[in-house]
Design the sequence.
């Protein structure tokens, strides 16, 4: 996504400009070619040398330098850019961009380029909410600019309100989202489940599993970066919501089933990467279950506590049954939904995966051995086998979960071409 992308980062004269240093550094580390353009007063907050060090490239600022080289370069920069991101965008520069001014290097490049424009406003709260600033942002939005909304929080002035520049992770997410708007999932709606489920025993205890949600979140981010509208149905995890992704949080398997069923009507793809609990307590206690010693009951201290479990719904299998019934009755099938399942196994991976693939009538099934140290729960890597409905099996090497996510989407995309 970012590798070899040519990104111009425009730095305006505001206190939030120091936050752009990390953004430029991370873009460069991701393989992007980053050209930084600073407005006249941006250097009062962060020196050009700092950005040159982070980008490993020359920094531009003066459109009117005596050699005339900058006047020529601004056209080349504009023509070669894949994205122009103004971070932070001050009220003054936003007004200039809305008015079509070209009185400095940044605004001249902005007027000359046909690359997407991303703006991350950061300023005092009353400047941001002023009707003039809002009108300028709305005008730029109508022209196709992508606006990264500022956060509400404590500002440099000490006041609290809207105007804080979002963190680097959000800015990177926004950049990736804009770059991916014309990707191979553009216009598609995908649903991804992630994490485990918690099945309550009483108000303070539950049955759960070790799923961290990392694989599902990686799948959601990759889909966003390819242009999809993503609904991420997430069980309880310790991961932040990825930028630009709709997240619906659930706790139990039944809640996850209901969330999936209520959202698949207009979906193109469903990937069930969540580790949904197979069983749940039949009757969760309304109050905390107290430990009572065996001696208090006139019994031995070794008395066991019994918990009656019932089976949870199998979401993918239940989805397959109506499809099979329609086929048997020769009815017109409903909208085609590409369905991908996951199988976290500890033994007999191939046999178990083939059985699940057939029983749930899946397009693909991704299986892994969770006892491995490099592909178990909470790891950043995964070692998977991809099973196809036609019997083919792919054995992928150990990869980062982000790379596994890309590999899975590479195999899903061809299915969409047949829809």
Sequence:
């Amino acid at each position: 996504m970012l590798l070899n992308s040519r990104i111009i980062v425009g730095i305006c004269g505001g206190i939030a400009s120091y936050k752009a240093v990390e953004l430029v550094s991370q873009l460069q580390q991701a393989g992007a070619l980053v050209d930084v353009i600073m407005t006249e007063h941006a250097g009062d907050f962060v020196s050009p040398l700092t950005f040159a060090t982070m980008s490993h490239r020359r920094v531009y600022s003066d459109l009117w330098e005596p050699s005339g080289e900058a006047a020529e370069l601004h056209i080349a920069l504009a023509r070669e850019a894949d994205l122009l991101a103004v971070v932070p965008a001050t009220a003054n520069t936003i007004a200039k961009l809305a008015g079509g001014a070209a009185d400095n290097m940044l605004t001249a490049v902005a007027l000359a380029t046909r690359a997407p424009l991303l703006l991350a406003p950061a300023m005092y709260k009353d400047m941001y909410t002023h009707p003039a600033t809002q009108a300028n942002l709305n005008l730029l939005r109508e022209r196709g600019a992508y606006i990264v909304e500022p956060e509400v929080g404590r500002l440099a002035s000490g006041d609290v309100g809207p105007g804080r520049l979002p963190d680097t992770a959000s800015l990177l997410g926004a950049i990736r989202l804009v770059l991916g708007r014309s990707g191979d999932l553009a216009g598609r709606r995908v649903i991804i489940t992630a994490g485990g489920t918690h099945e309550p025993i009483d108000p303070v205890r539950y049955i759960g599993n070790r799923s961290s949600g990392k694989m599902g979140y990686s799948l959601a981010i990759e889909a966003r970066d390819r242009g999809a509208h993503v609904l991420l149905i997430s069980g309880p995890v310790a991961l932040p919501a990825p930028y630009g992704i709709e997240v619906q949080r659930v706790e139990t398997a039944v809640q996850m089933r209901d969330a999936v069923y209520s959202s698949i009507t207009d979906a193109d793809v469903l990937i069930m990467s969540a580790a949904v609990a197979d069983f749940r307590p039949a009757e969760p206690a309304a109050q905390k279950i107290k430990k009572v010693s065996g001696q208090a009951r006139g019994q031995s201290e070794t008395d066991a506590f019994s918990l009656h479990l019932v089976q949870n719904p199998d979401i993918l299998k239940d989805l397959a049954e109506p499809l099979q019934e329609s086929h048997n009755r020769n009815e017109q099938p409903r909208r085609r939904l590409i369905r991908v399942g996951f199988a976290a196994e500890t033994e007999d991976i191939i046999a178990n995966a083939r059985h699940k693939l057939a029983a749930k009538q899946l397009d693909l099934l991704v299986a892994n051995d969770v006892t491995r140290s490099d592909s178990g729960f909470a790891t950043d890597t995964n070692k998977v086998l991809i099973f196809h409905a036609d019997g083919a099996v792919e054995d992928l090497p150990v990869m980062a979960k982000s790379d596994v996510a890309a590999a899975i989407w590479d195999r899903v995309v061809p299915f969409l071409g047949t829809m």
